Amino acid sequence: MTLTSSSSKAPWFPRVLGAATAAYSVAIIAKPELFARPTKLAPDAGSLSRGTAIGIRALGGRDLASGLAMAFAPDGEALRTATAVRVGSDVVDLVLLGTSLPDREARTKAVAVAGAWGALCALGWWLA
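RE: above sequence
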């Protein structure tokens, strides 16, 4: 049994995940508070620090690139590679956010979200 095959099983699945990733990324680039509030990187009221907003926008840029790659890569190896990059990004998010966020509840949520999205994208890799 090999990890990849020459025929795609359901390439639409990672493409949908890529489009969803890109859409969320555009949202947090435009309004970093959408990421900052649930992760407790910002108070519930008030403005974000410039550094926090820049960091969130950079994360959004990374995710926008990986999401668009998943959405538009040609079928086969290119789509699997784009999807593997997304899974790797989710693993990094799981580790860094899960160990670095300022609040235990926020760390738990971040691990759950990054883990679930990473698992879905791993399934997408298999289906690509």
